[in-house]
Every structure is written in C-alpha cells, then in structure tokens.
Description:
Shape: elongated
Order of helices and strands: EEEHEHEEEEHEHEEEH
Distance between the termini: 32 Å
Helix content: 10-25%
Oligomer: single chain
Structural class: alpha/beta
Radius of gyration: 19 Å
Number of helices: 5
Largest sheet: 10 strands, mixed
Mean pLDDT: 88
Amino acid sequence: xxxxxxxxxLGLIEKYPPFSYEELDVPCGIYVRQLRAISEKLGITLxxxxxxxxxxxxxxxxxxxxxxxxVVYRSERAVFLDYLLNAPLGEVTVSLxxxxxxxxxDELIKEKAIMAAKSGFFLSDDLHQLLRTKKIxxxxxxxxxxxxxxxxxxxxxxxxxxxxxxxxxxxxxxxxYKSNEILSxxxxxxxxxxxxxxxxxxxxxxIKNLLTNNPSLIKGLKDECS
Length: 226
C-alpha cells in the first residue's frame, strides 16, 4: 500500500482524444499511457480525474490537485503551474473545419469570411494576427449545433479548433472537412502546482529527473483504445 505522500493527484482534460478521455468508463489516451509508464518506472501512484480544462486549472490553483497533464504553456498559468518544459508530452495543432469540402484560409478571404471558435478556446497571438491580417472576423460560440446551422446558411464559413476535439461532431451528424493547412501548433506539458505540499515535492523531483534523463520513456506511446 502506498502512503499518501507516495502519490500525486493529477487532472486530465476530459473528452480529449487521442490524449485523454474515457470509453465505457475505461481511461484512455496517450497521456494515460504516459502516466502509467512514469508510475511503473518510479514505483509511485499517480491518480487522476477527467475534468474540463478550466475546472482542472481552478482545482490545481486552489490546491485540490497536485498538477495537470497535457496543458500548453501560458504565462498567466505559470504563476501557479510549474511546467516541465524540457519534456513535452505531445503537440496540439489547430485547423480550419468547413462544410461541403476542404478549404484553406486563403480561399475564404474573398468571401469576407467569418470564422467561429468555441468560447474559452485559446487562439495564439500569431493566429489572432493572421486573422486580422486577412481581415477575417471571429465569432465565439458555446453550442456547436447553432454554428452548424449558421454554416448551412452561409453566415459562418468555418470553425477554428484543435484536431482532436470531439465536440465538433454535431447531433445531426453533419460532416466537417478539415483543411490541409495547420493554423497553429503548440507543445503540451506535464505541470505541477507551485504550492504542492512539502512531502510531495520529492515525488515531483523524481518525475522531473526521470523525464529529463530518460525522455524516450514517454515518446511514441499510442492510444490503446483507438
């Protein structure tokens, strides 16, 4: 039996294939396999729960989680998160999704395009600048079905989102086409609370040393559920 200080409680972003998700209540995804590899190598317990990103951030900031798995670097998050920047877990790419056929961003300029992005979905400064340069307006949404209806009517030309977002699937099974171009790409990291309890700091140090000295341990792992 592991003592309490021999374990860490981490947050995983829910519904985020192929990285972290549940299938028939079974934990799945590349990040889950990476955590298991770390746990087995060090002989420690890494417990986790699947949460919306913002909730995972709040719980870590408030001391209810020891860290988060698979987050991109943000300066405002670095105030309370200690990122393992020398050992990225993966990469998140952002693409354009359209109806009827594939479009790249330049093809939509002449249409005075309006693009949609989910409320709370972060667009990098470079991507914001790209949209401004091409004079493309951005519409924020919370309900994918309503955006699909706007796309059918020609009022929204495309959706900007990550390649792994399952919530882009609408309830009426309309097919969305992903563009060939990648609009932006960012590395994801394992991160720990900067206010982690003293008795758990040794575990964090062991994980940091392991991934720094043996990065191949978590490279190339596949999603077993796919």
